[in-house]
Amino acid sequence: MIIHEINTPVREVMMDITNIVDSEIEKCGVRDGSCIVFVPHTTAGITLNENADPDVKCDIMLSLREMIPDIRFKHVEGNSDAHIKASLIGSSVNLIIENGKLALGTWQGIFFCEFDGPRKRKIYIKIVKS
């Protein structure tokens, strides 16, 4: 398993990590297999989505903020909205590696979703050979 650390700059952000995952696949030399990307945090998530138009990231974050506003929840840390958003987005993606490359759609990218930053975060990457 590979552990990669990133620093998130603000409370809520979607950060493109496609290049990080691509680089790890290239380093390990696996031609065909799968890659699991997992986020071990309860206020962050991981997702696949459009990576061509940056407005899509803004729209996703805006929609999540409107669906789950930062209201007075019972959780004393004041970040329940971040926990809920992370649960909706999910904590992992399972990807196909074919011919040494991620088998992503034309416009797809892998995004780390921060909902309670800024923080130092970990991304676990597991590459499995077929």
Automatic annotation (TrEMBL):
Transmembrane segments: none annotated. It comes from the Bacteria. InterPro entries: UPF0047_YjbQ-like, YjbQ-like_sf. It holds the Pfam family YjbQ. Belongs to the UPF0047 family. NCBIfam families: TIGR00149_YjbQ. This is YjbQ family protein. It comes from Aceticella autotrophica.
